[in-house]
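Pilot study result, target chain (307 residues):
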Amino acid sequence: MPIRDRLLAVLVAVLWGCNFLAIHVALGQFPPVFAGALRFAVIAIPTILFVPWPKVRIRYLLGYGLGFGTGQFAFLFIAMNTGMPTGLASLVLQASAPFTVLLGAFFLRERVSGRQLAGILLAVAGMTAIAWQQSGHAALLPVILTLLAALSWAFGNLATRQAAPENPLHFTLWMSVVPPLPMFALSLLMEGPSAQWHSLTTLGTKTGLIALGGLAYIVLLGTIAGSGIWTTLMRRNPAGVVAPFSLLVPVVGLSMSFFVLDERPSLLEIAAATVVIGGVLLGSLQRRRRAADLDGELPPVEAPAKV
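Predicted structure:
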């Protein structure tokens, strides 16, 4: 993998890690589910007008959109809005990788190797330690919601596997057409039209302008630029070489939340974070190596750790 591509892979990890800061500031203005609906609506409109259809079965696009889009971001945004620390959110969301392996074994009858099982057990041990630490601060619910977000992402990964899109970027962009309507409806039920309207009519305030900047970052840099560069790297290099760079995302997320938001994880949380990342890496190395041998194609189950 050329040095240029390695630097680009690090850049994507930085973009996706900083995405959690952008979500944090966006939630300072918008109700969480409404923020998710706006995020996808902004991408969906130009996608319908200008991006070619990805040539996949509609049911798989719907599955990806409802899992990766609607479920993941509804749970994640609500979790962060109810007290999930920004840095820990970027870490706990990595549970999507072991969830994907387990769901693939259950629904697609995929074999789970000893290495994968060991990685899953390590990741689960780290997640359990984080949940135990957070429960001592009466903050267990946000952790559970973030885990549900990771589980939703895993279901989206299965839909991606079944879809096998020829152009993953077009598939990702068209996925954005699915979440806006169900998320707007869910926002109406949970948050009410008055909260939606107030967030829109106060955009001229300092908080509103900062939130607009966060939303613009999520759409332009976190989604379009990050996904575009990542897809290009996956096409140019073996997937087993590129994919591990996604594990830098929680490192960036935890670091940025420390320096910008003054979030200070405990020693137990830092140790648990190391265990989780190590477990995800251990559980995916064997599959990624196998995928790398297949002409550098994208790994069939696991999607990169983006938000």
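One observation from the pilot: The chain is about 75% helix and 0% strand. A full batch analysis is planned for the follow-on phase.
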